[in-house]
Write a structure and sequence with these properties.
This protein is α+β, with helices and mostly antiparallel strands. It folds into 6 domains: 67 residues, Arc Repressor Mutant, subunit A (Orthogonal Bundle); 61 residues, OB fold (Dihydrolipoamide Acetyltransferase, E2P) (Beta Barrel); 69 residues, OB fold (Dihydrolipoamide Acetyltransferase, E2P) (Beta Barrel), CATH 2.40.50; 311 residues, no CATH class; 57 residues, no CATH class; 90 residues, Nucleic acid-binding proteins (OB fold (Dihydrolipoamide Acetyltransferase, E2P), Beta Barrel). It is 32% helix and 28% strand. Helix 11 crosses helix 12 and helix 13 runs antiparallel to helix 15.
Length: 718
């Protein structure tokens, strides 16, 4: 394009924008616009390019009828969530319910695309219908799947079952993949009504049946960064292995305090230590000592940028993907036994009611006396194991004092209304080839609760301190539940003779906690607990201190895990700058600009990690059950939908009884009662009810387990 053509191109762009901005403008099609602007016929192709440029820049839009209009800034923007059947949903931040996108209104959107939508008059069940009017940003650049060779080309069948189409791969773009290979494919075309999406194989992960490839596929699918770059590793390599005298200068020396770490047996990144003694006045002196990671990870260094990008360490079934290189996370930043370490210590004086009457937040030097495990502390306190008590004799009085203080702190939280859902987590044992050999509930015990209680009080104390200093900070917040969900819960539990006191349409966390106390040990405990949990919102990181509903506290932050969570590392820097008197106006302004993005990104990375962890668990559970087809189990109904009944086994595996397989009647889902009811027999299945099931089918690729109701159980119930 020469200079004259370029100038005309820009003139036409400006004229079109001015025309559409005019209040008198009536939407026109391309031909009408060209005629209106007196574009000669031999310049129509160039005019079409002008329109395409404006469309791609988002300065104009085109309707389904092909009429060009100015962008409607009021149209909602969200993330498109595809469904294999063709339709989809759009998630919009701040909107409680997703929008339903019919199959013929997706506008070519692909899974996870950022899209602009316009609302339609119809509704699908409870969801508002909408159509995609513009794709603002492609959400998926790469897809993980299984390669299928087909002559001179191939297809990649996506692992993600939300993507309902295979990806076409030309032979020259296959990288030599053969049928059965797990591959990463980069999309070069997203397809349309007549063409499949097209891609280029960028990485072959291995054969689908090779050990470890299944988890690696999930790692790649979620875009989890595994390897650290050269710059990051070079910086990590320059970090000292021992604490220097210069680093210890000016810090409070706490090396004489009796101090322990308490973690799982396989933990290597030990970022918190605890100390406890009792004063002559009967008050407890609790020290929570957190690794000073910020001393080794400077803001905006390669290490820091990588840690921010990752946001969090990810704990998968067979591996940990750390936020920081092992040289730091398992070395100088880990509070290992018997070595000097730098820490940030929250030193609290706590009275017999559990109130913090005095505290100090200091930069310190510590030396952990013993590395304890949850199992060992449980044996000492709960099992009264004589061998274990003798082994750790010098520490037993402190552990007993810890149990005493933790109970006081828990009672205090309980009194103010903190909600404690005690659902069992999974512990999956794998063999050396990554095959699951045992799945069991990972239960909390006296030792895990001690650490939990101590970390909670430290996080509250630090958050409260900085809130009242009115300095920029990162808080961990948990919003009040959605009023509609609480009203539904209130109406439902009324059928069981329970009630929760509402103030208008809001509920105090204490009311939910009281409800959980009342239902403890009853047949309906699981049912109501799950419904109460589903009424809650998701906790997140924010710069505004709006409180934590679930913990029933006004001030809360994450201070205690800077090795594995970026928000903790970020607030450590703020704490140290404040302690050193360096939080001047320019630094306050710096944090005011930086923290909103840190909060938003950290929340997103946390959700990504949670989803990846859940998917790896579902995969290994499906693989475990694959060898148990035909076996019979007793389980609890954990969910009911119109397509079937979800049942959870004692080992935490969840499977689905499809409604079509329920014998003897036609069953329908009563949403208001959370029940599946037989039309003729009146037989009902309720959340929390115990049933006997038989494993019918397992699909490790889809990570699903199918059950059928065991016939003898059905016969007894009719």
């Amino acid at each position: 394009m020469d200079r004259e053509q370029s100038e005309q191109f820009e003139r036409r762009k400006n004229l079109i924008c001015e025309l559409m901005a005019d209040e008198q403008y009536a939407p026109m099609k391309e031909k009408e616009l060209a005629a209106f602007m007196q574009v000669p016929r031999d310049e129509r192709d160039a005019f079409r390019e002008v329109l395409q440029a404006l469309l791609s820049e988002g300065k104009i839009q085109v309707t389904r009828q092909g009429r060009y209009v100015k962008p409607d800034e009021g149209r909602p923007v969200g993330t498109f969530i595809a469904n294999a059947k063709g339709f989809g949903f759009v998630e919009i931040e701040g909107r409680e319910e997703d929008l339903y996108i019919p199959e013929d209104r997706t506008g070519g959107a692909f899974h996870l695309d950022k899209v602009q939508v316009s609302l339609l008059p119809g509704r699908r069940a409870k969801r508002q219908e909408a159509q995609v009017v513009k794709i603002l940003e492609r959400g998926m650049k790469q897809i993980v799947g299984t390669y299928d060779h087909a002559g001179n080309f191939g297809f990649v069948i996506p692992d993600n079952n939300k993507i309902g189409t295979d990806i076409f791969v030309a032979k020259e773009h296959s990288k030599g993949a053969v049928t059965g290979h797990k591959v990463v494919v980069e999309l070069i075309s997203y397809g349309d009504d007549r063409h499949r999406p097209e891609g280029v194989v960028t990485e072959i992960l291995g054969h689908a049946n090779d050990p470890g490839v299944d988890i690696l596929s999930i790692v790649r699918a979620y875009g989890l960064p595994v390897e650290f770059g050269e710059k990051v590793m070079n910086q990590a390599g320059r970090v000292p292995e021992e604490v220097s005298e210069a680093d210890m200068a000016g810090r409070m020396d706490l090396r004489e305090l009796q101090m322990v770490t308490i973690d799982g047996e396989d933990a290597k990144d030990l970022d918190d230590a605890v100390s406890l003694c009792r004063g002559e006045d009967g008050r407890y002196h609790l020290g929570v000592h957190i690794a000073d990671v910020s001393n080794y990870v400077q803001e905006n260094s390669a290490l820091d940028r990588e840690a921010l990008e990752r946001g969090t360490s990810v704990y998968l079934v067979d591996r940990v993907i750390p936020m920081l290189p092992h040289r730091l996370s398992n070395g100088i930043c880990s509070l290992n036994q018997g070595v000097n370490r730098l820490a940030l210590s929250c030193l609290m004086t706590i009275d017999e009611k559990g109130d913090v009457t005095d505290y100090q937040i200091v930069e310190s030097v510590i030396c952990v006396d013993r590395r304890m495990t949850y199992t060992a502390v449980k044996k000492i306190l709960e099992d009264r194991d004589e061998t274990e008590r003798e082994t750790y004799k010098p520490f037993v009085p402190m552990f007993e004092l810890m149990e005493e203080l933790a109970a006081i702190l828990r009672k205090r939280r309980h009194k103010r209304g903190s909600i404690d859902f005690d659902f069992a987590e999974s512990k999956i044992i794998l063999d050396e080839d990554g095959r699951p050999v045992e799945i069991k509930p990972h239960e909390r015990n006296v030792a895990t609760r001690i650490i939990e209680d101590f970390m909670l009080i430290a996080n509250e104390t630090v958050a409260q301190h900085f809130f009242w200093m009115e300095l920029p900070f990162l808080y961990r917040t948990h919003e009040k539940p959605d009023p509609d969900k609480i009203m539904k819960l209130s109406a439902f539990i009324h059928n069981f003779g329970y009630h929760i006191k509402l103030t208008g349409e809001e509920v105090h966390p204490k009311e939910l906690q009281k409800l959980l106390d009342r239902i403890a040990g009853t047949d309906e405990e699981t049912l109501i607990s799950r419904l109460a949990l589903r009424s809650m919102k998701q906790a997140k990181y924010t710069v505004d201190c709006t409180g934590h509903f679930g913990l029933a506290c006004r001030y809360y932050c994450h201070f205690t895990s800077p090795i594995r969570r970026y928000p903790d590392l970020q607030i450590h820097r703020i704490i140290k700058e404040q302690l050193r008197g360096r939080l001047k106006e320019n630094r306050i302004e710096h944090y005011e600009q930086r923290l909103p993005e840190v909060a938003s990104h950290s929340s997103k990375m946390e959700r990504r990690a949670d989803e990846a962890e859940r998917e790896t668990e579902k995969l290994k559970k499906a693989q475990y059950m694959e060898k148990r087809i035909g076996e019979i189990y007793e389980g609890v109904i954990s969910g009911i939908t119109q397509w079937g009944i979800y049942v959870e086994l004692p080992n935490t595996v969840e499977g689905l009884i499809h409604v079509a397989t329920l014998p003897g009647d036609y069953y329908y889902y009563d949403e208001s009662a959370y029940e599946m009811t037989g039309r003729d027999t009146g037989r009902t299945f309720k959340l929390g009810e115990r049933v006997t099931v038989q494993v019918r089918d397992v699909d490790p690729a889809l990570r699903t387990v199918d059950f059928v109701l065991y016939e003898e159980d059905m016969a007894e119930g009719v």
